[in-house]
Queue: 4 jobs
Job 1
Amino acid sequence: MQPTGVLETSKATNPLKALLDYGQSMWLDYIRRDLITSGSLKKMIEDDGLRGMTSNPSIFEKAIGESSLYDDMLKSLASRNDLDTTARYEQIAIRDIQGAADILRPVYESSKLHDGYVSLEVSPLLALKTQETIDEARRLWKAVDRPNVMIKIPGTAEGLPAIRQAIGDGINVNVTLLFAQEVYEKVAEAYIAGLEDLAKRGGNLKKMAGVASFFISRIDTLVDSLIEDKLKAASDPKQQALLKSLLGKVAIANGKLTYQRYQNIFSGPRWQALASQGAQTQRVLWASTSTKNPAYRDVMYVEELIGPDTVDTMPPATIDAFRDHGRLRNSLSEDVAGAQSVMDNLAKAGISIKEVTTKLTADGVKLFADAFHKLLAAVEKSTQQKDKNA
């Protein structure tokens, strides 16, 4: 039974670990070699209730470019003339993903394949290329060779058929770069259709899992900037009050309404036919949960989106903050009518959520591609240095 209000916790209670009492799994949005080799990851599983991990090229770029943790592998790869820079990066990433997956394997097994996953992203340069994304998802899935891995595929228009195909092939998928409720519905449809394809082929649905990564704080960052621009031009007190009431509210409202769609989609006869074969729902995963505006509470995007059958992936700083002063309540289903009112008022204020989410998706594709180019440059630079020193 899920708690209905604020959980009374003692000072000895770790709020991170207590998230599971509300049906939410905490994942780490970060990966680095020393987490795996030092025992830190294992300690987070034991002490914080960590249930999984996500990675992306930006995270790997910082790990490789800002530390000496990969010197051993970079040195060995420097002499590999058969590998280009992308292949060298993949060798490094796959080693870390495999190591993390092995440490999380007990979580995977004890949760009956519900948690314990590590995500590895297809090249962001393929975000608008369907067949190439399918081919890369298959290749990475085979290369990592761990059942508790998810391949990250962006929820672009071109990514949707790739998502369905990968799931139909029996590949666990983390759909990334989601902002719009309507796009989320298409992603959920791709997941369900993929499971149906897999079932028709005689695949085992019990072994499948997936998440839909819905980005949060980036929405407020953009919407708040649009609101501030409108406030500068607004002279009507009522319009000013309306605009001010929306600051820092849209991302959470959008998330709550997305969760309502999740609950509606994963019910009814079509879903029950799959659930009867052991299929798991495609849980909503809250991503981009660090607070960008210092005026807002630093754990706001965690505290306001707690609810059953969800995942929250947090960067290290947000994990530390929530461990220290996070407050727990079943917030995700609170005041859904109020969330809808926020979205209605946003439209009244002259801001189109569709235009916002379309821009964020396009910007996200570019940011991920830029990060990937920067990552490859870091690998190339480090490899050349190791080659010279060999």
Job 2
Amino acid sequence: MAKPTSEDWQAKLFEAGQLFSPAAPIDERDLFAGRGPQIGKMLEAVGEKGKHAVLFGERGVGKTSLGKVFHAMFPKTIRHIMAVREQVDPSDDFSSIWRKVFKDLRVRSVDAEPGARHTPLAHDYPGPIMPDDIRREFQDIFSPNDLPIIIIDEFDKARDSVDRKIHEMMANTIKHLSDYSVNATIILIGVADDVTDLIGEHPSVTRCLEQIPMPRMNKEELREIIDKRLPRLDMRMRPDAYFKIIELSRGLPSYVHLLGLYSTHAAIYRQSLIIDEIDVDAAIKRALEKTQESTQSDYNAAVHSNRLDSLYREVLLACALAKPDERGQFSPTAVIDPLTDILDRPVRIDAFQQHLQKFLERDRGAVLVRRGKPRAYKFRFRDPMMQPYVIMRGIEDRIIPESAKSVLSFPAEPTLFEQLDTQSRDNAQT
């Protein structure tokens, strides 16, 4: 194989930027990784008459990407798929959302001349649009051979809409379409802990809704993101580099894209076709520099203190390293092990309980949110992107312990801090 020229390396830099997309959703089916269970449920919802779907989860887990590509995974022999995807913004009310949909649904007038251009359905609705209007239009314009899918993304942004009944009206629309067996599927996508966060309390629509939670990605899915891209660059990655990127990403695909892109760039700058751990280290530095000002500002507010013994940085780092559930939530007990290792001494919950409370407050950047009831609280990062940032800052600022950094270099180890001294853990909880 001929040695790459300078033009070849420049071409690889450009191609890497096209393959890894930390700032944009995936829109190419062949580059989409993982999410088999969620794809299956969405396809089932579309295939079942009268069924609709709600896809929900944390910010940054890939909901928009899935919404853009899943309909391309239907068998080629299936009926004519008509997918319309619209994005909600805070100014939208119910009518404006559906006017967006109607603008992308083009119909031909019954008395039009042959060959006449199709016009947007929105032309017929300059004023308010009601759930029954949608039902009647869909019954009229879609044929039995059509498979229409209406994807309404970022529906959570409608919470502050001027139309306070938007959730009730959307629920009524879904119920109307289901009750009349209309040949169309609505898929709502948004940031939420559960379905009620998106459409409110509407028991009557539960039977016709496929509720699809979108958890963080598992390690195999995260690795697949890298494995689908590097062969196109004729590059490969060493195991330690793989493991470090996956561990630091904390289940968030956008961070795999970010660190994957910058690691690939670092290797290309070295004119190497093999991505090594040193390239990941260079990617961490670059990622910290490129992090949004709002994230840096919230982090600084969270850890700032005039007291040297305040432990805000250490406790926040321990929160980022705490073992979460599939929704990214962790209990105070889960903070004990990583904080014990960071401080190199046993700790108890009462040593950092006040810190957790402070992280909820605006003065500390409100970096955490709390769910549940007293004595059974769970916490998560308000912005999931903050979690990997905190870990990378811990590495860069040399407050993450060497034991954790060494784990990142050994793929045989499953997770950070999983094998701590049992005696230290027992002492911390007594």
Job 3
Amino acid sequence: MSTEVKVPTLGESVAEATIGQWLKQPGEAVAADEPIASLETDKVAIDVMAPHAGVMGQHIAAEGDNVVVGALITTIEAGSGAPAAAKPAAPPAAAPAASAPAPAPTAAPATEEASAGASVLSPAVRRAILEHGIDPASIKGTGKDGRITKDDVLEAAKNKPASAAPAAAGAPASVPASARGEERVKMTRLRQTIAKRLKSAQDTAALLTTFNDVDMSAVIEARDKYKDVFLKKHGIKLGFMSFFAKASVLALKDIPAVNAQIDGDEIVYHDYVDISIAVSAPSGLMVPVVKDCDKLGFAGIEKAIANFGKKAKDGKLTMEDMKGGTFTISNGGVFGGLMSTPIINPPQSAVLGLHRIEDRAVVRNGEIVIRPMMYIALSYDHRLIDGREAVTALKTIKEAIEDPTRLLIDL
């Protein structure tokens, strides 16, 4: 008996996806509700589950193919199947190395094993493994169902034993100095969509960025003072993002244009604040939406952000998670960025960019003192938001961060 597996409903207004990766090969045994393929849409990656236990049928669509909702992509056949068709292929890869004289066996294993496991590794992960010379078998995957992510490879490279360095250094003769390689990897559907949206924002909106700097002393002091009590009461750590989210709510309520959007020849004003928070995921930067930030407390915002961060790392963000949003906060500071000009997330009209905190000399009461300072940037659509409004909104955020009491008394 054979059961057809078709492309599931992908979400509102989404009719097409790309086969990102086949997680099961023909002839392999599959369990009920086990992921067998990963589909990439314009916004998220979605796993296709096996409808019941059986044997994986032939791939009707190849990786990289576009498929529409309802299209047949494979079948699940009756039977038990092989435990894993891909894994028995590993020994033959090792056999030539054993029969060869092997003058310098340390130069190739990482590459050979990466190639052997290429069918279960994404292109970005595969490239990172090759660049850092990491054995994929030694990496514990933190992605969905234990899949290896790029962050896992980078973490393994960071913790790579120092003894591995001399071995690599001792084999330069086996790799010609002039050897140069290239790899062409097709852009994922998500990356193509991100590229189109960002370019569209530049082509459509009249983008402008205004800057300010913030003394983080008061927020750092408040966080250090209450973080233990906050964690004990709410079960979540108190971070800086909730302070900036609440400060942004103040600014957006005072300057409604920054929370609005252009729709044709009309301006749509929102009486609510849904903040898109940029988070890093294996497939790229994602912007899930913390809804009703104006009604949430610090704990509610922190829990929402932590939940999105975990879902992003596990590849479980849904379209519903990223639907809507009236304003975006992007924190480049976690990567060490000092200053940037973020691009708005259409159809939104503004985005707040946060950056790294560093001690700088500033003047306070006529004296030069050292303070933890952060540059903040507000990019906005000048078609809707005037310079005065943008500067005022950013100044409101600055004042609320430098004096968090304003967050309590709505100033």
Job 4
Amino acid sequence: MGIKSLTQTIKKESPNSITHENLYKLSGKKVAVDASLIIYQQLLSHRLLKNTKGEITNHITGLFYKIVKYLSLNIELLFVFDGKPPDLKSECIKERQQKSAEAKEKIDSCSDQENKDKLEKTSTRLTKKMVDDVKKLLSYLGISYIHMAEGEGEGIASELCRIGYVDYVLTEDMDSMVYACPNLIRNCLDKSLKRTDIISVINYDEMIKGLELSDEQFIKYCILCGCDYCKNVPKVGTTTALKMIKKYHNIDDIIENYKDKYEFPEGYKELFNKSYEIFVMYRDKLNVEELSIIKSNRDIGGLIQFLVKDIEMNELRVQNGVKKIMNTLGNNI
């Protein structure tokens, strides 16, 4: 998921583009959330939790606490869900499905509980019910969301940020930078900072400046590094890819000048060009007024009922979370 080693490259080549901020500084801002990524993040970050029906509940419990943190600081959220992915992503999806299936096969024969938990998380795939439950949570909280029939959530969110509809995009998927997301929020990249209220923000303009690349070159560089639509060329790492794209600005010249040194896979040029088209497919193509943005009024009673009765969360913790939101939003709740 994302661009191979892009974070490490930015840290090395463009460190000034990364700032570490206290979350409260985003108060009053609007943040688009890469929904699928953040749901997976909650599923994989802790031991899987289940209710008495045997249904996984991590995605709801984790999201509730994360959303409370943002809303209590008066940060507006807009969730953006993945639609049908580009056909070019089919191979990547098959690999993920195979990895999930292999982990599932090993669970029953695994005697070590810790390894069993890891296998169970690896085998977990996002289901329609999980997505529907998240939408229900958002509706009770009065948080708007977008779910287009087709398209990558991080790409749509990034374009909404690029055109100024939102101020930031919240995701761990570095594909967002390839879509020219102006301000990307990630979990803190500086592991020496232990406070949970510190986030890292990557600024696109500063990143491009530090890498000394144009917008077009940056997209091509990222594809050379390897992405969900086009694997990297064997033995071509991030440093080599950067040198290639700075010396030769198009894939034809790169292949022509390096074909004797590196083995470009069959059909690589076609995959490369199609990948480029995907990364610019939303550029100046989204009209916010034509987007189907699902909105709802907050229903705190329904929220508590859903979290306590259906998800089986601790009622006191739910009430405490609700109080944090109400203390900030007051009558707007």
